[in-house]
Each structure stands twice: as C-alpha cells, then as structure tokens.
Design a protein that fits this description.
This protein is about 35% helix and about 15% strand. By secondary structure, it is α/β, with parallel strands linked by helices. The protein has two domains: about 10-15 and about 270-390, Aspartate Aminotransferase, domain 1; about 20-265, Aspartate Aminotransferase, domain 2, CATH 3.40.640.10. About 45% of the residues are buried. The mean pLDDT is about 95.
C-alpha cells in the first residue's frame, strides 16, 4: 500500500479540528479585544462585554442563566473544581466514581483520600455500564459526592446519568458528570439532566483547545466557592479569562446544531449525517472476522466505534494497526488520548472483564462532521487490508 494516499481523521474523541468560523473569531478577538475584562478602562470594558456576551450565548444554548457557567482551561480543571472545591466545603465522607472514569476524575478523587475521604469505585458490567445491584449500597450515608462519566471515550458506553442524578438529588448527594464526549453529539437542556454540575471541553466540539466550562445547578454554586479571595468567575475560579478562547467556544456551540433530549431517563441523540455514517462504517467493519465490538452495542455515543482485534484467539496489537493506518493518512486511536501514550494495559477494558492478554487490542474510531460518504469504504478497505497483512 502506498504511503499517504488520503487524510481521514477518525479521532474526534481525542480532539476535533476547529471550524473556520471559530478560527476567524479567535483571530478577530485577539486583535481587537485584547484588554483585561477586569480592568475599568475602555479596553477592559470592551473585553468584559465579549466575555459576558459569550456567557449569555452559551447559557441560552443550555437553557440556563449566565451565572451557572464557569469558564475553565478545560474539562480536567472543571472536574477538579467540581469535585475538590466542593469537597473542601464539606466535612469528609464518601465519594463514588465508576471504574471506567477519565484519568482526571480518578486523580481528583484520589486527592480527596488525602483529606480523609473514602473513595469507592462503582463496578461496571461487561458493556462498561455501572452495575445497578450496587445502587442502594452506594447511594446512602456516608456518600456525599458521586461522579460518573456520561460517555466513555474508550469504549463509547453511556451511563444512566439522569436516573442516578435524580436519586442523588432526592438523597442530598452532590452529583457531577464528565460530559466531555456527550456534548459534541448535541446540546442538552441542563435542567433535564438533574445533575449538580457538568464539565466539558471546547476542543471536543470544534472549538479551541485550552478552554472548557463547568455548568452548575444554582443550589450548589456557593458550595464550589474557593477559599482564595478573587473576583473572577463568581469567586469559583481565579485567573484572567481567555476572551478569544471563550468567544471561540461560544461560536463552536452556536455552530453545533444537533440537540439531544432526555426522556424516561434515556438520552436520545438527534440523527445527524455523522451518526448515519458511523452506523454505515460499523456495519462494514463488522464484516471483518477479526473485529468484535467493545462497549454497549446500542446505548453508546452515536459517533463512536470501538473494536477488540483478535485472530484465531490471538490478540492483534491495536497500536500496530493505528501506526499502519497513519502511514496512509487515516487517523484512528487505540484508546483514550490521555493514556494511550503510556505503555500500560487498558483499565477500562479490564473493568469490563476482558482477559488481560487482550487489553492492548482495542481500536477506536470516532467520527465528526468533516467525514464524507466516500471516506467510509476507503476506511473499511484500508483496515481490512492491514489486518489481512498482519494475520497472514
């Protein structure tokens, strides 16, 4: 196979290319509205206007008020604020996270152990969905905080977020969700989620890197206040706001036309060209004997495909397939971007009960709005050809 025949980016779960309008807006703001929004002079006032205009635009998209939005450097910081600053304003208790959380949630929760908190990981089933038999045990005293990832980036499975969040609300338990992978699939009415707080990153939905948000239920805003005295972001997050990036995120959300809804505690995604192409690619790839789907077969991110690679019971290195595809300009991944550069077994796959020898055999493809119809057959042919070459 010749080198560099095409350029097809299938790693949206890792990051997404910023749209042309986002790039243009960032350039314009950087040039014309570079003032510090906390300054009282004209340049500061102009920057402050862009800041609050962006906050209003984003609030309107999520059907909330502007004061519920905290701008951060990304979902990782949002997670830390949501968990650690909340815990700092409570007496120690128990925090529950799933066994398939993003590393940022695991790290934040582990930090609380140093402050006297008990950390418990909620086991998942073979599909990576939390095991509901632990529901009564985990959602009782001394549990004070629960944090569950909504859409798992490595295997695509969705957790029953609104159902658990509603139970937590009834019991007075603070509930956070990492919605980083879900928001790019469609805007959600925040109140319908029933969560206490929700975190996301702009670069997952064609916005700029280095900016994210934390959306907070009004009942919990004071609980997230920092011990430090500062005036930015309602006393929750210090530091000069990155106006160009914030505006870029607002533009990206304006361009995100898809809407997701929650009915009977089920998250429903709007059918888009991306989801249609994902389903077409899934059908094609499942023709390859060496590929078997990981994660939940139905209740999953609509742009996400993940497969275990094996041949006659022998694992195939997903990194090798990723490398060979990259040589011809098809870009996929072997798992979470935050862990794939480390030569370690996948704790996510391990949590689902997959045998240790297959823990480095997961291949992930995640699509975005830039994918075209013609790409699907090219991707299938290329993956099929590479696997055939490897298994000869």
């Amino acid at each position: 196979m010749k080198e560099k025949e095409m350029d097809i980016y299938l790693d949206a779960s890792s990051t997404s290319p910023p749209s042309e309008k986002v790039i243009h807006e960032i350039h314009e703001i950087q040039n014309k509205f570079w003032g510090n929004p906390s300054s009282l002079h004209t340049e500061g006032i102009k920057a402050a206007y862009i800041l609050e205009q962006s906050r209003y635009i984003i609030a309107e998209k999520f059907s909330i008020i502007p004061e519920q939005i905290i701008f951060t450097s990304g979902a990782t910081e949002s997670v830390y604020i949501a968990l650690n600053q909340t815990a700092n304003n409570m007496s120690p208790g128990r925090i529950i996270i799933s066994s398939v959380e993003h590393p940022s949630v695991i790290y934040s929760a582990q930090q609380l152990v140093k402050s006297g908190w008990e950390l418990v990981r909620w086991p998942v089933d073979k599909f990576g969905v939390i095991d509901m038999k632990y529901l009564d045990e985990f959602l009782k005293y001394p549990t004070k905080i629960v944090s569950l990832i909504w859409g798992q980036s490595e295997i695509g499975s969705l957790q029953p977020i609104s159902y658990i969040a509603n139970l937590c609300k009834q019991k007075g338990i603070y509930f956070h969700t990492d919605a980083t992978q879900v928001i790019p699939q469609g805007i959600i009415n925040f109140s319908s989620t029933r969560v206490s707080s929700l975190s996301a990153s702009a670069h997952k939905f064609r916005g700029p890197k280095g900016i994210g948000l934390l959306i907070i239920d009004l009942d919990y805003i004071n609980l997230l206040k920092s011990n430090y005295k500062h005036s930015q972001e309602y006393g929750i997050r210090m530091g000069t706001q990155a106006i160009p990036l914030i505006k870029g995120m607002a533009v990206a959300l304006e361009e995100l036309n898809a809407v997701s809804t929650i009915a009977d505690d089920q998250l429903n995604f709007e059918k888009t060209t991306t989801t249609i192409l994902t389903n077409l690619l899934r059908a094609e790839l499942l023709k390859i004997d060496e590929l078997s789907l990981t994660g939940h077969p139905i209740i999953r991110l609509p742009n996400h495909l993940s497969f275990l690679l094996t041949h006659k019971g022998v694992p195939i290195s997903s990194r090798r397939v990723v490398t060979e595809l990259s040589k011809i300009g098809i870009y996929v991944s072997s798992g979470s971007a935050c862990t794939m550069n480390k030569d370690k077994d996948s704790y996510v796959l391990e949590s689902t009960g997959i045998s240790k020898k297959y823990l480095k055999s997961n291949l992930r493809l995640s699509l975005g709005s830039w994918i075209k119809d013609l790409d699907i057959q090219l991707v299938y042919n290329s993956i099929n050809s590479i696997i055939n070459d490897i298994t000869k």
